[in-house]
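Hey, I'm writing a tutorial for new members on how sequence and structure tokens pair up, and I'd like a real worked example in the thread rather than a made-up one. If someone can provide the structure for the chain below, I'll link this post from the tutorial.
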Amino acid sequence: MGATTFWVTETGFTPKEAFKKAVDKARYMYGHGGYTGTIAEKDSFVMINVPQGKNPEKYAQELLNSEHEVADKWGPAGCILLEQTDIVVDRELPPEKVNIEKHSHKGPRKWKTVYALYSKSNSQPAVLIGQFDDRTVAIDEAKKFALRHPGRCYEVRIEKVADGHDQVLCEIKAVRKTVKEKVKINRYLFFGWAKC
């Protein structure tokens, strides 16, 4: 059982998000079996502040060849912030109001009788499956459903519906609103020793 170094850059809004993305990608590429010699072997990281004027990659290499905790194959990965970039994203606000679109009905409304087939269970309200003009057809459909789905109960109800008219009185939808928001996306370098 040996060890090798790994170097990987990843972006994220936070180092934790970037670390998770890097580990997930490595596990997807190299598997979950262990001893991959990649960041997939790590379950934590430590943030490293690069001294003023030092090159981040060279400083990381120095740490890998030192007594620092990232130089241990059993230790955490090192993480260095390489750059921050401002981006603009759309953020959806929680809805504060609804839109109501009313449906208008013209002319006299005629009513007809239908046989409505419902599926029901003990813990949930009945759900409409379909409406039929004929009682026998509705019962036959209920039998078919009962044979296909033996754990559920089916019932046929007699209902009155508007003939030739839309049954919907109105549609109610939440009004969605988004705002442009400036956020920082960061690019991180993750490095360390890993089991292989």
